[in-house]
Amino acid sequence: MPSPFPGMDPYLEQHSLWPDVHQSLITYSRDALQAHLRPRYHARIGERLYVIPPQRPIYPDVTVTRRQPVSTPPKTSHRSVLTADRPVMIVAPADPVREPFIEILDLTQGGRVVTVIEVLSPANKTPGDTHDIYRRKQEEVLASDVHLVEIDLLRQGVHTVAVPALYLTPYQPWHSIVCVSRATNREQFEVYMCTMRQRLPRIAIPLQAPDPDVVLDLQAVFERCYEYGAYDDLIDYRAHPEIKLSPEDAAWVDEHLRQQGLRP
C-alpha cells in the first residue's frame, strides 16, 4: 500500500528503517534525474568512506597477578607485594561508515562535477565526528564552483543544511527542508520547506549555464521508495512513531491514521 501520509512519513525515521530509506532515496533520485540529463550530463552515486571508532568496554573474567612464591623466604625489606587494580579494557575497532550521495557530471568537460546532491542522515545531524565531517565536506563544496543541493527529511537532529537557521525562523513550522546553493551566488539560498501534512516539493536542480534546471519531484521519489520498500509490512501504525512529535502533530497523526483505517 502507499504511505498513509501526504508527504514525509514520520514512522520512517525509526533507526531500523532509515538506512534502507536513505539508500532508496539516493538511488531513485538518481534514476529520476538520469533521463532528463542525457546526453550532456550524467548522474552517478558517489560514496564517502570514513572511520568512526566506537568504544566498547570488555570486562576481563580473570585478573592475572604475579606474586613471590610462598617457598621463597621474605626479603629483609618487608615491603608488601602490590596487586594492580582491575582495569576496564577498551576495544576501539576501525568501524567504516559509508555515506552515499549523488554527483551530476558534465561529460563535455571530461566528467567534471557540476552539482552535488546530499540526502541527510541522522548521523549528519547528530553532534559528533560524523556531523563534523559532513560540515567540512559542505564547506568544501560551498567554496568551490559546484552547486550544492541538500535534502533533509528528518525532524530529529540539529540544523545542518547550508542556509543559516536564523533566516528560517519566520517560516516555522516546517518538518522537512531542501536547500539549494548555486555556485553562481553563494549569498542566496533556494529553500523548500514543508510539514508532514504537505506533499514533498518539486526541486529545481541547477546545471551549467545556460542549460535550464532539471526538476526532481521528491514526492514521486518518496512514493516509489515506500512502495518498493514495502515499509507498510514493517510499520505498526497503531503505535506511536519512534521520534517525538509535538502535542499538535501527535493529535493530527492520530486523527489522520484513524481516517485511514490504520488505528481503531
Question: Which helices and strands occur, and which strands form pairs?
Answer:
Layout: H1 18-37, E1 41-51, E2 56-58, E3 89-91, E4 96-106, E5 112-119, H2 129-142, E6 147-152, E7 176-181, E8 189-194, E9 202-205, E10 214-217, H3 218-229, H4 247-259
Helix pairs in contact: 1-3
Characteristic key phrases:
264 residues, alpha+beta, two-stranded antiparallel sheet, 10 strands
Could you provide a short overview of the structure?
This protein has 264 residues and is an alpha+beta fold.
Structure class: alpha+beta
Helix share, percent: 10-25%
Count of DSSP helices? 4
Sheet with the most strands, sense and barrel status: 6 strands, mixed
Ranges with pLDDT <50 over ≥5 residues? Answer: 55-67
Mean pLDDT: 90
Number of domains: 1
Q: What fraction strand?
A: 15-25%
SSE order in H/E notation?
A: HEEEEEHEEEEEHH
Strand order of the largest sheet: 1-4-5-6-7-8
Distance between the termini: 18 Å
Kindly state the number of beta strands: 10
Identify the overall geometry.
globular
Radius of gyration: 26 Å
